[in-house]
Design goal:
Order of helices and strands: EHEHEHEEHH
Strand order of the largest sheet: 1-5-4-3-2
CATH class: Alpha Beta
Oligomer: single chain
CATH superfamily: TT1751-like domain
CATH architecture: 2-Layer Sandwich
Number of helices: 5
Shape: globular
Length: 128
């Protein structure tokens, strides 16, 4: 079971971040929060060689729809997008909402999870 979707890009790390943000915004997803692991670990005296950033993203209407049906699905929200460098390449990816929601066992969320997943994959494909 492949729980993530990711693509490599020829863009530089910061360019990839800006590109995925733009593509998400065009699809009505906003970035709620960002965490740069390299910088955060450096604050604690730990050297991490790779750039690695997590973007927590959300579409308010989709989040409301999901939480109104099953509030405990909030454990999986917001959606996470990741941009990272590894061995000289930059990658953009996400955890697949359909797989995550499927683990919760709510069949009535299958359609919305599939729709959100399709939107995130489309954004990644356009951003690379």
């Amino acid at each position: 079971m492949e729980i993530t979707y990711e693509k490599s890009t020829t863009k530089l790390f910061d360019e990839a971040i800006e590109s995925i943000k733009k593509e998400l915004q065009e699809r009505k997803f906003g970035v709620l929060w960002e965490l740069n692991f390299k910088e955060k670990l450096a604050e604690h005296g730990i050297e991490f060689k790779n750039n690695f950033k997590i973007l927590e993203v959300c579409n308010p209407q989709k989040a409301n729809e999901v939480l109104s049906k099953h509030i405990e699905v909030g454990y999986l929200l917001p959606c996470k997008m990741v941009v990272y460098e590894n061995e000289g390449k930059v990658f953009i990816g996400t955890a697949k909402p359909e797989k995550l929601m499927g683990m919760m066992g709510y069949a009535d969320l299958s359609n919305i999870a599939s729709e959100v997943e399709w939107i995130l994959i489309e954004a990644i494909d356009a951003a690379v």
